[in-house]
Write a structure and sequence with these properties.
By secondary structure, the protein is an alpha/beta fold. It contains ten helices and 14 strands. It has three domains: 5-83, Arc Repressor Mutant, subunit A; 88-155 and 270-295, D-Maltodextrin-Binding Protein, domain 2 (3-Layer(aba) Sandwich), CATH 3.40.190.10; 165-264, D-Maltodextrin-Binding Protein, domain 2, CATH 3.40.190.290. The radius of gyration is 23 Å and the shape is globular.
Length: 296
């Protein structure tokens, strides 16, 4: 069987986007052209790869296996082509990043704005997500996450100083209910919690005492996946919330929130830009790495 590499690339894009229309938009072709390419690939392979309904697109078991096997190879070919095109050393092209929603220093604005100004031929495509996935398989050039959760086979470049998580509440809440003296008291307090997705258990609040780490499963009266909403509710006096200190600093400096239980909140390694070590960084990614080092 003659392998249609273009059809494989289209299939990989459909797998990433979970949508024929989105894949067509990224390629600048019609949805019909994408559909026909997938159909020809399925006919050539003699097996269904994609399940289609009027509302969704998903992969069959065979499609999942094919995507898992071909995605890294397609990325390597794309990287090789990009590297050849960029022999002049001018960073260009789309730079796809998957960034944790709590990486405040990276997402604050000035760093990325100054990078795009310095590299006008690079187009940033940033997905803010707290889901855990393989950035290589999903077609990202790099990611930004806390160092403790980055796989050891990745190259990591620091983008922030040490971090810590804090419990905070508004002065109004503290005036009404007082400050907790120990994290275990939080089980009896009004709390505002975070979870990554519907159906997931709320995030456990992590503390340390006498060098020993422990976590608590509080029972939040409000749970959300939106840190901004958590902060607004805490400022309004709805309860105690917990998260990265950087997220709370503006409200703390304005006197809207007060840190709690700081002696139980140690610092730890911060955020890193990470990318696969098995291939050389493209000029567009190298430009971002160099910019990060200059910006700090």
């Amino acid at each position: 069987m003659n392998t249609d590499l273009n059809a494989l690339a289209i299939f990989a894009l459909v797998a990433q986007e979970k949508s024929f229309r989105a894949a067509a938009d990224r390629m600048g072709v019609t949805r019909s052209a994408v559909s026909q390419s997938i159909r020809r690939l399925e006919e050539a392979m003699g097996i269904a790869l994609v399940q289609r309904t009027t509302r969704s697109v998903s992969l069959t078991e065979a499609g999942e296996r094919l995507y898992r096997d071909v995605a890294p190879a397609l990325l390597d070919m794309t990287a090789a082509i990009d590297a050849t095109r960029d022999l002049r050393g001018v960073p260009r092209g789309q730079l796809r990043l998957a960034v944790s929603s709590i990486a405040e220093s990276f997402l604050s604005g000035p760093l990325l704005a100054s990078f795009t100004e310095a590299n006008p031929e690079v187009q940033l495509d940033i997905t803010v997500t707290d889901e855990e996935f393989d950035i290589v398989a999903e077609g990202y050039d790099a990611g930004v996450r806390l160092g403790e959760v980055i796989a050891q086979d990745m190259i990591a470049v620091t983008v922030s100083g040490d971090q810590r998580q804090l419990a905070v509440a508004s002065p109004t809440y503290i005036e009404r209910f007082g400050m907790p003296g120990h994290p275990r008291e939080l089980a009896r307090r009004r709390c505002i919690g975070w979870r990554s997705a519907p159906g997931m258990a709320p995030y456990r609040w992590e503390f340390s005492e006498n060098g020993a780490e422990f976590s608590l499963a509080v029972e939040p009266e409000v749970t959300t996946n939106d840190m901004a909403l958590m902060i607004r509710l805490a400022v309004a006096g709805a309860g105690i919330t917990f998260g990265m200190e950087e997220s709370f600093l503006p409200s703390i400096r304005r006197g809207e929130l007060v840190p709690l239980l700081e002696e139980f909140c140690p610092r730890f390694s911060g955020f890193y830009l990470y990318y696969p070590s098995r291939r050389n960084a493209a000029p567009k990614l190298r430009a971002l790495i160099d910019h990060l080092r200059q910006f700090r």
